[in-house]
Amino acid sequence: MDKFKFTEKLKELETRGKTVVELYNEISALAMECGLEGDKPCQGRNAYYLSMEFLIGRSFYNNLLELGVLEETREILAKKGLDINVFEEIEDAALGNGGLGRLAACFLDSAAGLGLPLHGYGIRYKYGLFKQAIENGFQVELPDDWQRFGDPWSIRREDEKRLIEFADMKVYAVPYDMPVFGKKINRLRLFQAEGSEEAEKISEYLYPADDTEEGKILRLRQEYFFSAAAVGELLDGFVKQHGKNFDKFPDYNVIQLNDTHPVIAIAEFIRLLTNNYRMPFANALSLAKRTFAYTNHTILPEALECWSEEYVKKILPDIADIMVRIGVYAMREYQTLGCSKEQAAEMAIYSGGRFYMANLAVYVAKTVNGVAALHTEILKSNLFATAHKFYPNKLQNKTNGITHRRWLELCNRELSLLLDKTIGVKWRSDITDLDRLNGFTDDTVKEFIQVKQIKKEQLLKYIAQKEGVDIPADFLVFAQVKRLHEYKRQLMTAFAVLELYYGIKSGRLKDIAPSVFIFGAKSAPAYKRAKAIIKFINEIAKKINSDEQTCNKLKVVFVQNYNVSYAEKIVAGTDVSLQVSTAGLEASGTGNMKFMMNGAVTCGTMDGANIEIVEKAGKENNYIFGATVEELIKLKEEGYVPNLYLSDADHKRAVESLIDGTFSDEGTGEFKELYDSLTTGANWHSPDNYFVLFDLDSYVKTLVKVCEDYSDKKEFAKKQLINTANSAYFSSDRTIKEYAEDIWKI
Ligand code: 26Q
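# 26Q complex -> structure
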């Protein structure tokens, strides 16, 4: 990067009379021009990350930071009378919906930062994840037309488009390249579908509704579309450079499959080698086994993809045949290894007219990894137990991480400056240096308290503007922000908050710190219960916020359209991070890491990466409650009867507020359905299958303890600072180094 050229040209830039969007495009173009100078592809071995989601958020500030010109830009613009924050008007590119997509973005950032050749392949959705508004307490979904601000960070590569063939249509995959700046420039290549109106539909929406056959087939098309484009160009590129000695292909390429969504790439890889290059099937399969690696992100059965043969045959008959054949090879191999019939059936790729994509991935991939220690253990002992038995070296753990550039340097400039002052600037390039913050002095604690206060004020001011809810800046700030899902148990938090409210109102809870609970979450449009939970939280917020008797003690806010940019503000301004999933179900969590790094304590269950967080920062500096995985296993064996836990009058009151008229669901019946899900179950699950009622008691007690502890501000701040000081492990720089060493060998 020619920084001098950039700053000189920026100084010359005429800003008067231009709109924010115009300036955004011009400055971004300038950064691209200077940033890309001297860029050359990496010879040798490269890793490719195939993912349906890349939740990159806003690129402007991050790219300027990575290019090392953020501060200069801030100053130059200030001299022109422009506040750099005006570019917050430019909305996020939300080409993902949650943890898995954000992880992909963090990984690209870390790899570039470390100078490791990792490139992304995905889809350039016309509309990203819907924009959420809350109307009368209900979630409303609006299209996210992110390109309306322009897309100055992408370069269209018309010359490199490829034709992707389905049985019933042909589609062009046109690449758009986004550079990922760092020590090295890596590339995120997103394909846009073109050629006809039908074709364009493929890259129109992230997560088309898949409750119909048409929707399911569209999703299958999406998966094949970008996987085939990626694999096709990698093979062609190899042939161009090295000829047809494919044996060497894995020396130059390794392909990481981000969950099962791109697993169809394996079949396409084999199809191309056998069809186009006349390679025997067995050889193509063994080449695939040396090329692909797979990451699992969830053990929830409903998220493990399995495709009906009928659908695959309809649009991709060759791929269906190949997957059947891989299934046959797998079966033979399982037998040779001495698997019983049951064991082989468990690992079947093709059975009963369905393709089990996770089994396909596990069979072919050279490594399979979980995303946190506990999650990997569960994969080994549960979901992939049989595979682990017969392929003991396949499964490994790679605990997730987050890029400390976006999630500390960028979102918390004040804390970053305090770190510079306290331990020097080395942590910015080598995050392990953050450890040196341990052993901080009293002065540092004082300064940390000031920083937290500033970030809190910024956050609360923003919330007041956006949501119209005023929250005093001396409140203790709790936050639960993440996708909305029953297993994440936002509903349990809602009950707990309600109990705090009644406790404060009755005078029973006297000595607790005034607090605000911030919720942020999008629900999948078709996920009725999740939407009901959003409405319930908003009803609670309305009641609590308008109660004059308690409003100097307790507030609740559900922020609209929670996304990466909102997260950047929330993680910096929060005191207590709520991570309360049912033990065993949150594969890792990465929000928990962002909060920790910014000095929030975790109030959570022994689940996912929470376990490692408290291992690093100390249980005594966090608030752990609730049943463990082992306890839940026992409870299930003994027979869990949730209604028993409603004998406590306070819990009963909170839970029954769903049905006793305290709150209105506007006659939709959805609150009653939520209530039933906890107390009587449904035809597809037993009552309270996420153990909300079981953990509610210890949750409420833990929250009360947090509020009491906060009265000693200094002791509380120490706990927070210890969390920051021990968060280096959760930088994705560490994670990426592990992938690079143990899996990719780059
Ligand atoms: C599956 C089938 C059909 C349609 C959609 C899906 C689907 C889509 C998205 C299934 C799963 C996802 C996303 C999963 C996800 O975000 N998982 C999260 O991954 C994070 C990164 O590893 C973890 O930290 C979280 O714990 C995990 O929930």
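# post-check
The first helix runs from residue 3 to 12.
The longest strand covers residues 170-180.
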